[in-house]
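Troubleshooting: if your tokenizer reports a length mismatch, compare your output against this known-good record of 194 residues.
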Amino acid sequence: MANNDASKIRFAPNGAVYMAPAVGATLPTAVGDGKTPPTGYKPLGYVSDAGVVITPTVTSEPVNVWQSAVPVLFNVSSATFTIQATFLETSINTTELFWGANWVPVTPEGGGTADTWRLDLSSTPDLQEISLVVDWSQGSHLNRVVIPRSMIQDRGAITLVRNAAQEYQLTIDALDSNGKLGYVLTNQNMTPTP
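Known-good structure output:
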């Protein structure tokens, strides 16, 4: 049991999710300070206390041969990298991402008032590519996941009730970016132990 080290058990009491348009995004190469958005990225605000779920998945298929009752190797058939979160802030960043459209002011000539905004939902929506960054930390231990290209794969329903906040539930899937789905940065010492 000499290799056990409870100080290496980690939690994620602090974190943030940021987004930018995938085209032209300057991808962060440093783990950051745990408080500041990467250059060119917008914060998506509060996330529900369920946190952010990061799921890397590799699906493989067995290669069977006549000479063996067990597979002789496995071949990768698909790979995914998914981020799921429920956002709580009704902000321009969160709502435009959720609805997949942009807010525009409605002019008095168009029947609105100076404080009216409109978001048009297309019957044939364009799927927007975004770059996503998820930061989380515990004390001085900082971590960052960077997804260069991604799209919203699923949206949850918004429930309007008197005693609960509106929630914007999103599932975001990574897209191929020059042979990569994304990368993870950390300031923790990852030197292998003997």
